Amino acid sequence: MTQATNDLRQDALAIFQAGIQAADPYSAVKRCLQSDGEQLDIALDLDNRAKRSGNWQKIYVIAFGKAACSMAKAAQEIIPAQLLAQPILAITNYENVTELANIEILGANHPLPDQAGFVAAQRIAKIAQQAQQGELVLALVSGGGSALIPLPADGISLNEKIATTDLLLASGATINEINCVRKHLSQIKGGGLAKFTAPADLHALILSDVLSDELSDIASGPTIADDTTFNDAIQVFKDKNIWHKITQNVQTHLENGAQGIISETAKTGDAIFNNTGHTLCGSNTISLQATSQMAQNLAYDLHLYSDQLSGEAKHIAEDLVIYAQALLSSGINKPNAILAGGETTVTITGTGLGGRNQEMALAFAIAAEKHQLNANWVFLSGGTDGRDGPTDAAGGIVDQQTIARMRNATIEPKQYLANNDAYHALQISEDLLITGATGTNVADLQILLIQPQLT
Q: What CATH architecture does domain 25-151+186-228+265-282 belong to?
């Protein structure tokens, strides 16, 4: 690897870390909560221009998601101890479990739910139902919450919920489509937590991991009105041609909902939301702004490719290569950074190992060779949570020698991509992005650095 390439790789890593730091959940909660030692004030926006205060006699704090531990710790440090009705409860994925004094931490599985998450969801529902009028339930919500607190609707088993989630993840369904289904198979999502809490006050501090920061999609919106329907959920399965693959119980539940036999999720204007509020305390947009600032600090000319990146990962990768090729053809004469943020998808047809970021990185390297991207370049695609798919990698970081390294190891990159086996291909070329669990989750970041080859 040349020194120039190594320098680009180090810059890409620094830019990525800036994005992760901007999504630090501990700092995000600290920005939103204030106390005089007697009462609690909650900021309604990041500018602290408006606050929510109440003469709450008791405050129940529940945290769920990949950032639950850090968010819970920050809340504990600010909320007056005499107001806490009981120890804070935090549910997070196993990789992010951190022991904290006087906070109960429960680990659960992600991205597929498990029995531990089911028990944790039952605990959350019980706490919410325990709260009385004039008391506050403070929910600290972060990405991953959908899988971590499964509470299936009556008549649907946890195993059926897991199998359904697995089918959706493998189908190429978008996060919005997956969450639409989750809400209609759950007691706690799609405003369900608000139902459990009413008539007590409810406020959610939300760390967004979805495009457009649509609050009803973050952790499948347990505190937010849901305007999707049972018919929408059914259509997701039919559009992906997997309706026939789900169990009879799931089909029956969704069809009963569509026919009005089962009540819909809580909708906008429902009285249960009269005492419910929320604050968006961190997002992919905020992280993307931080990566942009770091790229500029490192003297790169900046290009924002997309702040809502979505679509099939391998196709988006080729589109990025074509975009970069056009940029080079325009005659750039200094290092450029092309940045994006969002969440792509992968339609699984092979039997390999990987995730959407690893697949995008491998596909980018292949497309760069195909389109003869004539520059010194590095491309990084990574999940801000530090975990891409069911692997220990956050994503991949590739350069113009990646394909050569793979072929020198006698593997054919296109075959690995076709088998959805980006993990092993990038492992062989030493291009896996390994960060460990970051304790946050605001979707994915993409960083393409290009140094034109000047003559």
A: 3-Layer(aba) Sandwich (3.40)
